[in-house]
What does this fold into?
Amino acid sequence: MRTIITATLLATSLSGCIVTSSNTLVDAVSLVGTAASGVKSFSPNTTQNPIVYNKDAIRDVCIEWNGSVALSDFVPGLQGELQKHGVQSRVYDAGTQALACPVTLTYVGYVKWDTKVFSDAYTPYLTYAALTLRRDGRVLGTAQYRLGSFGQDKWASPGDKLAPLIDALFPGNPVVADNSPDNLRGGGNGF
It folds into this structure.
């Protein structure tokens, strides 16, 4: 009886419709399918309108620091995703010339604050990011991330949110190392 009550509570807490039948096996399979689709919705959105003019492999990038993005793990997340593609990166101050670095990456990010489930502390989260890749001032590609319409990826890490953008901007660089926890993107959804 406890199992039925637990399954019913879980099923009613998920979004969407659920049809019950007299066959418990059918109900269990339906519940698992609903739960799996709910978990999938927590993964970050795909890249918005990527434009890439260069598909050659890139090995070194200089990232122009943008102090207006008030998210402490934005640049480390960005560098981690670049490293997965075999791209070495270093950061330089905005307004200074990146010496001996023909390929540069600039970024913009918008941050909002909210409380996580079962917490009273406000936490920042990334709602929008745009990356622009340039070689000697010429645009090689640009990609954008926007928070999902239902906020399903709201608490995903910046690295997880930036991963599809890096994948789009570096098509000539296959993933060579996955240094995220348990070798999974989206491992930390913030709950």
Q: What stands out?
A: Strands lie at 48-52, 60-64, 88-92, 103-115, 122-135, 138-146. Confidence is low (pLDDT under 50) at residues 36-41, 182-191.
